[in-house]
Design goal:
861 residues; alpha+beta; six-stranded mixed β-sheet; disordered N terminus
Length: 861
């Protein structure tokens, strides 16, 4: 039946054609972070990489996680490296640099010999949550001066979380200073080369990117964004084409272009290529276009295209003869030999490419590995102490009882689709737990990295507790743990200069891997857990309010959807929800763990802890300054700070003293008195930005407590969210499949907003932006009888309407389009989604999505 002859349902009467809408549960229909704003930001970054960006002297401090509004953490009494750079105009040179830590200690002159490394190590003291704003000031020989600020927050008492963040902070700064600067065809580039140009550079890039520093960032606000842009420019120059052919196990050429890409300038490429893939995938921008590399096969290609060609090389290079090593990889492509070191690198690249970029991985890659190499290299079902162990070239280990190769084998199980509750997976977890000390006490960062990859990338969910009992990441002997997990061990062996040095890997590579292990994810930016307890000191049996609602996601297209709480630090979660209460029965110091989970598939997790002291009376009051506040100048006066949620469990609060003037805070607590204070005049006089406030309360026992808060000042011409603004709802796109017929090469009009029923819960107007339109078949495919059209979609400006060509290859299994879009309300809140449109091979047989390979609209030359 010609569906164009049938009228659509009333919901879609405005469309000039009819179609079938089917529902599917395929998680691939969900949104990924691929937005037009991201593409525009990448274009800006590429332009920055190719031009001299400095027109004047500029001091630039390093922002935490790429966001200048987020503070660097330091424990009370700890030393933090203040980090900054300067761009200097041509013809001028730096003449001075100084840091003012912002704690009253005064400015300190620092070396300015290297404008990329303007640093000061400074010790901070303060109460929990106390903010400081350090300032970097530079001058040059041309009479210019420039300053930039660096946010700091004190964490007290000292805990594992703040130590992790400080270790990451110092490690990234060390990597920044180690980058070698160069140019490629006049474009600024950079690399790391302590052990391997490609591996060192790739792993450093991965470490920066998963922590929020990406080339789409603003170079004028984040020096690491420029490091990443330079590194990617260099990395693409290291790729060389390989001509592939059909192998015994199948055809590796998933995109049909006849070539793969390899790290052609490296020995033992199978050990390196997976790391290169992860670095590109960690950019989060599959539609970004390269500005360097081989002029035929790399330059001008999308990152997704480059990654697909690297995946094709991995498929082509797999051992596939009838031998012991079938299904694995080793020193060279098609080596017809295998070891579990090389195998894990190809597996980790494959996992990241498939999950994040949607790359096509030939099915035979997984089946060959699972059915042949895995059984030949894992001890399984023997009932011995070796059960679950993976060896090197067989079942025998070569180092630390197989604690490098066993987690490397588990990474392969994950690539092959083996879930985390399967017998082989369980056996390996039990083996690793039994041999844990052999890994960490010998500083095998190589094996530690493999463990982190295996546990975090496991499906259907990441593994928190190895073998169901051991927190492989957070266990800490300093707080009663039986053995140290990876976090405590890595913190304890970090060198004072910020780097790591391990057996087999050292300096650049070891430091990059250690930072990745200490981060919460492997190839993606993920959620950040923020744990708050009120009050932090209380009596036995009194409820404590735990709040995780300020947890957030470093990827604006994703969100936190689950909060789980462990009150007794036993690794098992006792309650769920963004806000929960719990009472502790006995006097003591308690550490409560919060785990947050995002909405990605598979999900990503992050953890954080809160400290609660249960003591005998008397008890101090609990200060709660409220907020975070949003003050929109000219739209919501009066501006009022409200401390009414402050409380005292064994007495009465007798005074409320506020500090908000000047900025940064001087903590004299004489700027406002009372439960509520009107601050309209003061904050209306400030420029838009984020400002600190503090409230000190005193009870009738003369005990005091201080807590800190934030005020967001929004300018009079900016969109204003006074609280409660919700983003539009794109969930209606999930599971929708619009089927076009007949396949007559004509373009049909698609109304995204109507088809996906996009609404705004606040009733705000919504604008639709189309981010990308892709398809699983090439455009203009000769010999495929698909019409040979060069453009298969059309989108004009902003709005919900797109045109999709009803076309498919007669030699395939139907065509599937993905329309990725962003829906934004007038206050700037947004959601993202993917609408599936398909053209079946024959009517009545659904089209099969073979993986999105091509843009439906060709990029402009």
């Amino acid at each position: 039946m010609n569906l164009r002859s049938v009228q659509a349902s009333s919901m879609f009467l405005l469309l000039p054609f009819a179609f079938t809408v089917t529902m599917q549960s395929d998680a691939s229909a969900q949104s990924t972070a691929l937005g037009k704003r991201v593409a525009r930001a990448h274009a800006t970054a590429a332009a920055q990489a190719g031009t001299t960006k400095s027109v004047g002297l500029q001091a630039i401090t390093v922002p935490w996680a790429g966001d200048p509004n987020l503070p660097h953490q330091v424990f009370n009494g700890g030393s933090l490296m203040l980090q900054g750079t300067a761009t200097v105009p041509a013809g001028c040179s730096l003449t001075s640099a100084s840091w003012d830590p912002g704690d009253g200690s005064g400015p300190v002159a620092v070396s300015f010999a290297n404008p990329r490394a303007l640093e000061l190590k400074h010790t901070y003291a303060g109460t929990n949550g106390q903010p400081f704003i350090a300032t970097l000031t530079v001058t040059d020989s041309c009479g210019n001066a420039s300053s930039d600020t660096f946010r700091v927050v004190v964490v007290d008492p000292k805990n594992l979380d703040v130590e992790i963040n400080m270790a990451i902070d110092h490690g990234l700064w060390w990597l920044h200073k180690r980058q070698n600067l160069t140019t490629v065809s006049g474009i600024p580039a950079g690399f790391w080369a302590n052990q391997s140009y490609s591996a060192d550079t790739s792993s450093a890039l991965q470490a920066f990117q998963i922590h929020g520093h990406r080339e789409i960032g603003n170079f004028a606000e984040d020096p690491y964004a420029e490091d990443v842009a330079r590194g990617l420019v260099y990395l693409f120059t290291q790729l060389t084409p390989v001509t592939m052919s059909v192998q015994a196990a199948g055809d590796p050429d998933s995109n049909g272009n006849g070539i793969g890409l390899n790290t052609g300038y490296e020995n033992y490429s199978p050990y390196v290529l997976g790391q290169v893939i992860d670095a590109v995938v960690a950019s989060g921008t599959p539609n970004a276009v390269t500005v360097s590399g081989d002029t035929t096969h790399v330059l001008g290609k999308t990152y997704a295209h480059i990654v697909q060609d690297m995946i094709d090389t991995i498929a082509w290079g797999q051992a596939d003869t009838a031998s012991w090593y079938r299904g694995g990889w080793r020193y060279g492509w098609n080596d017809q030999s295998a070891d579990n070191s090389a195998c894990q690198w190809n597996s980790i690249g494959t996992i990241g490419a498939e999950r994040v970029f949607g790359s096509i991985v030939p099915a035979f890659v997984k089946s060959e590995n699972l059915n042949y190499w895995i059984p030949n290299s894992q001890v399984f079902g023997t009932g011995t102490s070796s059960d679950g162990r993976f060896g090197y070239t067989d079942t025998n280990p070569i180092d630390v009882n197989g604690m490098n190769t066993t987690p490397s084998g588990v990474v392969q199980l994950i690539m092959d689709g083996v879930p985390n509750d399967s017998p082989r997976f369980d056996a390996s977890e039990a083996y690793m737990l039994a041999n844990w000390d052999a890994l960490i006490l010998n500083n095998r960062i190589y094996g530690m990295f493999a463990v982190a990859k295996a546990m975090r990338l496991a499906t259907p969910t990441p593994v928190d507790l190895m073998a169901g009992t051991f927190d492989w990441y957070r266990s800490d002997t300093t707080t009663g743990g039986a053995m140290d997990g990876l976090a405590r061990r890595l913190i304890s062996i970090q060198y004072p200069e910020g780097y790591w040095y391990g057996y087999w890997v050292y300096y650049d590579l070891a430091t990059a891997w250690a930072v990745i292990i200490l981060s919460s994810t492997i190839v993606e930016i993920g959620p950040v857990a923020v744990c708050d307890a009120e009050p932090e000191q209380t009596a036995a049996g009194f409820p404590v309010a735990f709040d995780g609602s300020q947890s957030y996601h470093l990827d604006p297209a994703q969100k936190v959807v689950a909060w789980d709480w462990d009150f007794d630090n036993d690794g098992l979660y006792d309650a769920s929800g963004a806000q929960v209460t719990h009472a502790f029965a006995a006097i003591g110091d308690y550490t409560v763990k919060l785990r947050v989970t995002d909405d990605k598939v598979p999900p990503l997790n992050a953890t954080a802890t809160c400290s609660v002291k249960v003591t005998p009376p008397p008890f101090p009051p609990n200060s709660d300054p409220g907020g975070p506040y949003t003050f929109c100048i000219g739209k919501n006066p009066p501006f009022v700070l409200d401390g009414s949620k402050s409380a005292d469990i064994d007495g009465t609060i007798v005074s409320y003293e506020w500090d908000f003037d000047p900025q940064p805070l001087d903590l004299d607590f004489n700027d406002g008195i009372g439960v509520q204070v009107d601050v309209t005049t003061y904050f209306s006089s400030l420029a838009p930005g984020i400002y600190d406030i503090a409230l000190r309360v005193t009870d009738d026992n003369t005990l005091q407590n201080v807590d800190f808060g934030k005020v967001i000042v929004v300018g009079p011409t900016e969109p204003c969210d006074l609280g409660g603004n919700n983003p539009p709802d794109c969930s209606g796109a999930i599971g929708v499949n619009v089927e076009l017929w007949p396949a007559d090469h004509k373009c049909d009009l698609i109304d995204i907003q109507a088809l996906c029923n996009i609404t705004d819960p606040d009733g705000d107007p919504v604008t639709i932006y189309v981010d990308a339109i892709t398809q699983d078949e090439p455009r203009d495919a000769k010999g495929n009888h698909d019409g040979k059209t060069k453009v298969d979609a059309e989108y004009k400006g902003v709005g919900p309407l797109v045109w999709i060509r009803s076309e498919r290859s007669t030699l395939g299994n139907g065509r599937v389009y993905h329309i990725r879009f962003t829906a934004m309300d007038d206050k700037g809140a947004f959601c993202q989604g993917v609408l599936i449109v398909s053209v079946p091979l024959v009517l009545g047989t659904p089209a099969i999505d073979d993986g999105q390979c091509c843009e439906s609209i060709p990029p402009k030359p």
